Structures are given as structure tokens and as C-alpha cells.
Amino acid sequence: MKPKNSASQKWISETELFVSFAPSMLTPNLRRKIHEANAEIPGSPEICLGADSVLFRWRLEHEPGAWRQWSGQSVGLSSACREILHQWIEAFEAIEADVARGESAPAGFKPSQEPPEHAIKQLSAAYPDAAAWDLGRLASINDLTPEEVIRRHLATTYVVAFEGFVDGFAYLEPLPGSPTIKAPRHESPRPKVPAGAVALGGPYCGVYPTTGPGGWNIIGTIKGAGNGSKDGSVADDWYPSWQPGCLVQFCEGLP
Amino acid sequence: MNQLPGNRPGGASSSTKSAHILGGKVIKKPASMIGLQQGQMAWDPFADAILRQILRATTSAPASDLFECTLKGPVLTFHDSMWVALGGAEGSLSWPLWEALAFSPGETLDLSVIKKSCRIYLMLAYREKEYPGKNTLAAWRLKPESRLRANKSHVLEILTPESDGEITPGTNHEPQELRHNFIMSPASDRRGMRLSRASGDGNSLGDNQHGGAEIAPEPLSYGCIQLPPSGQPIIMGPASPKTGGYLRIGKVARPSLRHLAWLLPGDPVTFATTTRRSSIEQMISLEEALARDIVPC
Fold it and tell me: CB distance B218–A165 less than 8 Å?
């Protein structure tokens, strides 16, 4: 695959460059490199990673002339980003090819075909009617009983795909071969979802770490949620430290 | 003591919480103050820039703090000598905006004229004893005729592709989805400003050509416009989620964030298009006005 055909980038605002990758091209190695190496990109932009995309955001100070200076810079920054990303993509592809030929991977590099090495993290959750706002909806969409929806969810091993949405939130992706549950997002997101809510959205599962808006289907609650700090966030003592590649399973416990 | 209209000693609201400012208890946060965000005026970046410059010119004090409040008529009690700059508020107010005001310990700033929820920007700095104009009400101010003053507008500019194809504003840029007249919904908050169709402008539900579309979660930022299947757009606020999987159809242009900052539930909203280049030119023009329009009293 030619890297230059695999990613496209566009300015989506005055100071934000959006880079879209072909599905599955944004490997954990490349994600980590982009996340950690923003200083290697001219202007050290803030970086936000999506599933198959990255947003580079340059923050301009309120200093005289900052915008005039920016207007002359941004074309060059776009080119520089394109070059740097292509270099990284090519470098990682070369390493993957070397590893496939039997060579050892360099330190810090994890071949994408290698299975996750982390121990499975067990999250204790409860699925009472009062907390399972959308269980009936999912049961209806999937033509299953609510019990079967929960059974499938509990039988699924998830892998932490990436962090996003809000601080403390991780997109959990079912491992291949897991039982499927169709979970289309709501027509309109709810303004307020409680902290600790276990939810399914599209192909993902997630736990809302704080009270806030959300368009996913709520099926349960993490054990101990609601006893968190004053700002509505969940207590640190059970707040998982998400690491991409980490495996997660939910087990049923009392709320 | 300043005889500001509306200023009176004591008289703080009986229902208050402490707000820690500049390392000490400077004001109390009345219950009627709905939100008090410290550190950055995220809603209105230009209010931030203007007030910083006013207080920098007035005090040269490095210690200063910014507050972005959503409130309903609180009374603020000051426990230290402070310079305060107010960056606007909704309604007819009796104190000068966009000027540095001097407050002494025990003085209060009475905002009780405000009856409905609105946003206001305060910037505070310790008063320096040696400041020559300490008995002067205001030292530096924004020129009254300056166009940097927040002029409320219900028209938000959104970015559209430029002819050279340099930008594409959204995953699926669908400006026709934003051609309607909208109303700011009461469900709006710092995370997202929800719009509903104005009455007589069609039924939003089921009228969306992209109903049901979901995408892989994409990065979001302040001003991004999402279109959920309901057809009711959501403009991301300054505390918006970092990623989201609803269709992203555009982005409010940077100069229009000023107007977005002042919209309240029930306000009408329409969209107009602009280009990235034009938007940057507007920002250059605004920053030049910022350097020019803050003057000594």
C-alpha cells in the first residue's frame, strides 16, 4: 500500500488540520508515535486522535501579529505534517515487514499481529432495570431478550482501542469472534448520562467516567458509581487506567 | 469607596459558596451564579484577549485571574483590593463594561439587575499600592466605538470549501442541512449548544437526508457542528467532548465564536458561509483593532 494514497488531510478550521487514514491504518504504533511526538511537528500542535483520524490544532497566543504570522505559516505546516506522517507510516510499515521476515522488533515497537499481552481487567457492573435505560431498545433492535443482550455483553472480551470522548473514557472494541450486538447511537444524544454508565455505541462499549452528554445505549452501571468526587466524576479507586491494547471483561455484581 | 451605580457595601447574598481566587477567598459564589469557570474565557476568545490587555495596561501585575460566569443577578463581595474588568453582560447594565474598575475590601459588585441567565466575563487582578491612579475609577478602557465590543448577532458564519479545495469543513459537508432557521435549545450547555428548528421551518425529525449515519469516532473541537439522525444540529461548546461518532458537517468560523458566546436559549440562529481565508483575514483585522482600541481614560 502506498502511504501517500492512504491518508488525506484537510484544514477544517483556521488552525486545525484533520488527517483521515484508511481504516485500520492508524496502528497502535503509529497512534503512540503521533501522540508522543507532537514536538517533532512544526509549531508543536495539540493532538487529538479519533478512530481513524487525527486532529492537529495549533493554538495562537493573543499576541500582536499572531494571526498575520499564522496566515503565512499554515500552508507550510500542512506540507510539513504530510511529510512527517508519511515518513512515520513508511518507517512502521518497513519494521512490520522486517518482523514478518523473522527479524526482532525494535524496543517499544509492538507488531500489530501480536496478540495483546495484558492481563484481562475485570470490571464489576450491575444491570438493574433502573440503570439499563436502553436494554429494551437493544433487545428490540437485535430481536433478542434483554437477558440475552446482557449475556452477550458479559461473554465479550473487549480490547481498549483508544481513549477519547472525555478524560477517562476509552473505546472498548470486541475481540474478533465475539457475540454481536447491534447498537446504533440514539437519534439525538442525551444531555446527561450518569457517571459510571455502561453503554454500547456502534461497535464499541464504554463506561462514562463523568456525568455528561452521551448518545450511546445504556445497559448498566459500574459497581460503586455515584460515590465519586464532588464534580460528578467517578472515584479514583475503581477508575480504570486505560491502556490501549488492554483487555477488559465485564462481570455482574451488585450495584 | 467607589460609588459605582449598583455598588453597595455588604449585602452579599445569603446563600453563597466560597470561590477561591488568586489563592485567597476573594469573592463568594452566590447560589444564583450558575457556572463559574476559572482560568480561561473559553466561550469568547476575544473577550479574553481584550480584558487581558486592559488589565495588563492598568496594573502591569502578573497575578491576575479570569472568570467566565453564567449567572442570575448575584452580588459579588470583594475581600481584597482588586482591579476588575467586566467583559459584557446581557441586558441594560449600569456599570461600565470593558474598563478596569477599582474595588476595595468590603465593596460589592451588584449584578442584581440581571434577571435571566446570561454569560459575563470578569477579569481580576490585585491592585498595586503604588499604582498612581488608584483613586481613579477606570484607567484603561476599550474605546466606546470599538467594534471589538461584543455585538450580538444571530448569524453564525461557517467555513466552506475554498475553490482550491484546500479545506473540507466536515466529514460530510452538507450546508443544506444548515439552511434552516434554528432556535437555541434550553438543553444547551458548555459541552454543546443544541439547535432546534424554528417554528414554521419544517419538521426536523425525519427530515434529515443523512438520518442514521454514524461514523468512526472523530476528533471534535469548539465550534464543530454535528448532525445526529434527529436532524437537530449540535454546535460543540468550549467543554465539548474530544471525539464523537455523529456526522460532523461543519465548523463555526473563528470570528463567529464571539457571537456564539452570547447566544442564549430561545435565541434565533441562522448560518452563513465564509471561507477559511476570509476568516483568517477577519482575525488579522480583529487583532489589529485590539492593539489600537484599548486606550487610557
Answer: no
